[in-house]
Write a structure and sequence with these properties.
Microtubule-dependent motor protein required for mitochondrion morphology and transport of mitochondria in neuronal cells. The chain has about 1050 residues and is of the alpha+beta class. Helix 9 packs antiparallel against helix 10, helix 12 crosses helix 13 and helix 19 runs antiparallel to helix 20. Helix content is about 35%, strand content about 25%.
Length: about 1050
């Protein structure tokens, strides 16, 4: 940490700090690796897939909070050793908080931005947990300490405001009234710039009052997030501290705003990049961060001297309110927080790049001071002039309605400013006193109830919003749901919550939960439909995603760590109930494959979103179902290597039986669009008129986030191994077409047929023992797809069709079979002839180590068939596809000298081959004479001439071996897929184990028999060859 707090206001560049947090529980359990290192104020991040790929970044401050710490008796995290590298909360505040406070006391506007992906430690740095207070509470404490130290020279007034920006709407978290539809309005004034109209500012004279207001705002934020079905990680929170310092002797007033901004999660979406959503990415809910990035990029370009025509401040609510903080009248600090785990590499790298751009921005901060008395006089003089103008307009009788209205507005505004200046500070505090007393009474009552009754405690994805709402279950029967008409009802709001959702009964110190018909209730990861007795620390999910922790009577509460039951714990428990476990593998090892870990993280993150999407679809009568799937879970490429796994969402129209597959990124984007449609629907249901747009029910189909045009759907893969072609052995297989999760989609009958250039199959005499004999020679073969049986895709809906696609060796474009419709067992009878005119070693290696991957594509009503693109594909006039043509198509440029040398060398080779050919003819003639002699004089009964050659016998043995190995491979595939179902009991597991043992025994016997037969055949061939050699020697 090189920079000092005193340096912060020496320049007006945005200061950037980066902080690296410890591993969280999930990362520790999965054996995560740290990919971030730090030296002084520089940070290096390493690509876990390519250790040689390292990126270096330098910032004003760098904080290592990943390791080297311990917890003392007070619960504070401190360095293990004095002078250790661990940066605690105090270290961060001394560098950042003290500088912000000093700037504010000097009269500058000051801004602190916290940026990073969800769960990277933003909230811990900004607010903190327990005794480890963050920047905001420490800043408030020091602010009021400084006010007390300087009370003799100045009078200070502090106003506190707290707001949230979600979906381009501003929500006042301290408002006493009901929430304004559409949020508060953002206006612009020449002097003030952009500001929020009508938000509440509360006067404070102690840090304790600020802390209570933050708790009140957090409670409002939690309730609003549940009611609006909002994801708090996608919202921005702004805390504004207005500091007004009145210097009586100098008749000067300094006024500064301290903006503390916790930005929304910045996580990137893992996506193959191969699809673009037809609906615009970056909707209103994503707009703020996108625009903020554009503003930072534009300002960074300005700082390095580039000409920038436009800085897009006006494109989002957030950037309007942060205009002074970015390139304006403010001294700004950004703290970027990182997860050091390998699984978060992409997000952490993105955060570092973002922060690197931000540090180039230059602001123009000035001291905000004005003569107090003079300001009042100027306002009164201006009002007198306005009154004269109004009077003159009236006497002249002019009809200037618009001008009169504008003048009266200015007059009213000036009078309000005069009144605000002249109102005593004590009067402000008196107005707030009643609020303090009411809040204190509520807090006291809640604490007393906690010591008397069981209750349920809310658990939120944002740790700052967890534990805020406590719903007490007193003795008797209590209805929980949307309704609040009954005195014995507990009102909760959220997606999927019914009017009367469930009933709590508290009798004889036992609490039971009874779901009502049609309501969704999950206890400890499992759906319940009957009365269930609750135990201390049971986990409840009501509706789609209202998560609560049940806290029993005080006598049941021990010293358990409630903190372990966080939002991720709930989702991991749900995933485990669906058979998705973290940290388990078939080998029983504790180390988890990083790709599987990434899939698990995505799975538990998307689970609640999918549940909410299903609930919105149901309430909006969209008849669309969403289901999470793991793509490529049981699939491999043409070499047999596992494909990269990722989460996709299967979308099914229950009415039309149409199916789509959405990537994670596409689903997340659509989910936010669905929320907008759902909120419009809610507004219509409650009779609130909307300013613009169509009703949710009348949304055009092309703008409906629940709908997409139908496209061919990749259903699964089958692998046809090509090794037999290297020996020119025909192969006939029954292939299983496996879906992405290992389910059987169909059975495909396929053949590989070595043939001549006319397409006639080769015989046994053409089988090769050594594949290298093919080098430089022509190789022809046919791929035959005969029939597909048991198509699950068409069995589910008869109005569907299928096609197969494949790509062989260096074919640039896939080839497709003709589409077949409405048939579960269609005849394909598709034959493709391939030829290599000069077989290369590369093709030979490919044949011996690879398979052709046959893709099964599902067709639906309304989608077009897949068509083979022949662009760049070379074919003969007979329709034969030419492969392996590197040499002929791309000859290396040579000069004339090299060419003449090559010609002479070829001429020498030709002469040598002629000589060898002559000697072979002489030797052949001699062998014929010896054979005739043996026939005439050595007894024809031996019949040596009719015996096949050793090579032909060996070729037949190889053919038998390859056919037997086909059945062995099929047995191995059956063994791999043989797994117990999720519902299997102990007896079922025993039966599975017995069946597994039988399959293993059969597999072992088949393999041993195949190898033994090959050994016997080879031994017999060698023995006969030796006998012949003995006779003919």
């Amino acid at each position: 940490m090189k920079a000092k707090a005193s340096d912060m206001h020496s320049k007006d560049c945005v200061k950037v700090a980066v902080r690296v947090r410890p591993f969280n529980k999930r990362e520790r359990d999965a054996g995560g690796h740290c990919v971030v290192s730090m030296a002084s104020s520089s940070i290096t991040i390493q690509d876990p897939r390519d250790p040689q790929n390292r990126r270096l970044f330098c910032f004003d401050y760098a904080y290592w909070s990943h390791s080297g710490f311990s917890q003392d008796r007070r619960g504070l995290y401190v360095p293990e050793e004095a002078g250790g590298r661990y940066a605690d909360q105090d270290s961060v505040f001394q560098d950042l908080g003290e500088g912000i406070l000093e700037n504010a006391l000097q009269g500058y506007n000051a801004t602190l931005l916290a940026y990073g992906q969800t769960g990277s430690g933003k909230s811990y740095s900004m607010v903190g947990y327990g005794p480890n207070k963050g920047l905001v509470p420490k800043l408030c404490e020091r602010l009021f300490e400084a006010i007390g130290e300087n009370k003799d020279t100045r009078q200070c007034q502090v106003f506190f405001s707290m707001m949230e920006i979600y979906n381009e709407q501003v929500i006042d978290l301290l408002s006493r009234g009901s929430r304004t539809s559409g949020g508060l309005r953002v206006r612009e004034e020449q002097q003030r710039g952009f500001y929020v109209e009508g938000f509440r500012t509360v006067p404070c004279d102690s840090a304790q009052q600020v802390e209570q207001l933050m708790e009140q705002g957090t409670r409002t934020r939690t309730t609003a997030a549940t009611h609006m079905n909002a994801n708090s990680s996608r919202s921005h929170m702004l805390i504004i501290l207005q500091l007004k310092q009145i210097f009586s002797k100098e008749s000067i007033t300094k006024q500064s705003n301290i903006n503390l901004v916790d930005l929304a999660g910045s996580e990137r979406q893992r996506s193959s990049g191969s699809e673009a959503d037809r609906l615009k990415e970056g909707t209103a809910i994503n707009l703020s961060l996108t625009t903020l990035g554009n503003v930072i990029s534009a300002l960074a370009d300005v700082a390095v001297g580039k000409r920038v025509v436009h800085v897009p401040y006006r494109d989002s609510i957030l950037t309007k309110l942060l205009q002074s903080a970015l390139g304006g009248n403010s001294r700004t600090v950004m703290i970027a927080t990182l997860s050091p785990a390998d699984i978060c590499y992409e997000e952490s790298l993105s955060t570092l790049r973002y922060a690197e751009r931000a540090k180039r921005i230059q602001n123009r901060a000035v001291v905000n001071e004005s003569p107090t008395e003079r300001l009042v006089k100027e306002l009164k003089a201006e009002n007198a002039k306005l009154l004269q103008r109004l009077s003159r307009l009236g006497h002249e009788g002019r009809r200037a309605h618009d001008e009169t209205k504008e003048l009266r507005q200015l007059l009213t505004h000036n009078e309000l400013q005069i009144k605000a200046i002249q109102t005593l500070w004590e009067q402000h505090l008196q107005e707030a006193l009643k609020d303090w007393e009411q809040q204190y009474a509520n807090i006291t009552q809640e604490r007393r109830m906690m010591q008397m009754h069981p209750y349920i405690l809310n658990v939120n994805e944002d740790a700052q919003l967890s534990g805020v709402v406590k719903l007490f279950i007193q003795e008797g029967e209590w209805d929980i749901g949307l309704g609040d008409s009954s005195p014995r009802s507990v009102s909760i709001k959220g997606l999927g919550i019914q009017e009367r959702h469930a009933v709590f009964r508290n009798e004889q110190r036992r609490v039971t939960l009874t779901p009502q018909p049609g309501s969704k209730v999950i206890v400890n990861g499992h759906d319940v439909s009957e009365t269930t007795e609750l135990q201390h620390l049971d986990r409840l999910i009501l509706g789609s995603n209202c998560t609560y922790l049940f806290v029993g009577y005080p006598s049941e509460r021990g010293g358990e760590d409630w903190g372990r039951y966080d939002y991720d714990y709930f989702q991991s428990e749900l995933a485990a109930a669906e058979g998705i476990h973290l940290g388990e593998s078939s080998a029983g090892c504790s180390q988890t494959d990083p790709s599987l870990l990434a899939v698990f993280y995505d799975y538990i993150k998307l689970m609640p979103m999918v549940a909410e999407a299903n609930q919105m679809s149901q309430e909006l009568n969209k008849e669309v179902e969403f289901k999470l799937e793991i793509k490529n879970l049981a699939l491999s490429d043409s070499k047999g290597h596992d494909l990269e796994k990722e989460i996709v969402v299967r979308v099914t129209s229950t009415e039309r039986k149409q199916v789509w597959m959405w990537s994670k990124a596409k689903f997340v984007n659509r989910k936010f669009l669905m929320e907008e449609v759902y909120q419009q629907h809610q507004a219509e249901q409650t009779g609130v008129s909307r300013a613009e747009g169509l009703p949710a029910a009348a949304l055009p189909r092309d703008k409906d986030p629940f709908w997409d045009p139908v496209e061919p759907l990749l259903l699964g893969y089958a692998h046809l191994w090509l090794q037999s072609l290297a020996f020119r052995i025909p192969l006939e297989e029954q292939l299983e077409v496996l879906g992405s999760e290992g389910t059987e989609e169909a059975i495909l009958q396929a053949q590989l047929v070595p043939c001549n250039f006319t397409g006639l199959p080769l015989g046994e005499d053409d089988i090769l023992i050594d594949p290298s004999e093919l080098l430089g020679r022509r190789l022809d073969f046919q791929l035959v797809l005969e029939q597909c049986c048991g198509l699950r895709w068409i069995r589910e809906a008869r109005n569907r069709g299928v096609q197969f696609g494949f790509r062989l060796f260096d074919c640039s474009q896939p080839l497709y079979t003709p589409a077949v419709w409405h048939n579960v067992n269609p005849l394909l009878e598709h034959r493709v002839h391939f030829a290599s005119l000069h077989t290369s070693q590369r093709l030979l290696d490919y044949l011996q180590s690879s398979a052709v991957v046959l893709e099964l594509w599902g067709l639906q009503d309304g989608c077009t068939d897949l068509v083979s693109s022949l662009e760049g594909v070379r074919m003969t006039t007979e329709g034969v596809f030419i492969i392996d043509e590197e040499g002929p198509t791309n000859p290396a440029p040579v000069n004339s000298a090299e060419l003449s040398c090559s010609v002479r060398a070829l001429q020498q080779d030709v002469e040598e081959l002629k000589s060898v050919n002559t000697s072979l003819r002489k030797e052949n003639q001699s062998l014929r004479e010896q054979l005739n002699t043996a026939r005439n004089g050595g007894g024809g009964g031996r019949g040596r001439s009719v015996r096949p050659s050793s090579d032909a016998e060996f070729a037949r043995a190889l053919k038998v071996f390859y056919h037997s190995m086909t059945s062995v491979r099929a047995q191995l595939q059956r063994l791999r897929r043989h797994r117990p179902s999720e519902e299997s009991d102990l007896l079922g597991l025993r039966l599975i184990t017995d069946e597994q043992s039988r399959l293993l025994r059969d597999f072992s016997e088949q393999l041993e028999q195949s190898v033994s037969t090959l050994k016997q055949d080879v031994a017999a061939i060698v023995r006969r060859k030796r006998e012949r050699s003995g006779i003919w020697s």
